[in-house]
Design a protein that fits this description.
The protein is mostly helical. The protein is built from 4 helices and 2 strands. The chain has helices at 15-30, 37-57, 64-73, 85-108, and strands at residues 10-11, 111-112.
């Protein structure tokens, strides 16, 4: 009998929030310092906490500090002020790197499927 008859024996719970967060990070680049900036910060930081929680559940501990740092950097409660040319470039590249980390983590964080 085929063991893979009903699909894979693992699930990727962090994939959907990772893709949504990557889209929010790219959208934040389009509206940087615009009207949607605070809303996107909420979305990004909450999704970072969700992906971090899925990493804890999957016992992928090495992802937890990454997404805790993303949640702190993009937090809307006490936002970082990124001014100056060097910091603005860092903020731009930070969005792209964080988006890539969300997508990579979404694919790599997987846990056994419980039937």
């Amino acid at each position: 009998m085929d063991d893979n008859r009903y699909g894979p024996s693992f699930q990727r719970n962090a994939l959907a929030p990772g893709i949504l967060a990557a889209l929010a990070l790219v959208a934040a680049q389009l509206w940087l310092a615009g009207a949607w900036d605070e809303v996107l910060r909420y979305v990004i930081s909450i999704l970072a906490l969700i992906v971090g929680w899925f990493a804890i559940q999957a016992k992928h501990w090495w992802w937890v500090p990454v997404f805790a740092a993303i949640a702190v950097i993009w937090n809307p409660i006490v936002p970082f002020e990124w001014q100056g040319e060097a910091l603005t470039a860092f903020w731009f590249w930070g969005h792209l790197v964080a988006a890539a980390l969300f997508v990579v983590a979404g694919f790599l964080i997987k846990s056994p499927r419980e039937d």
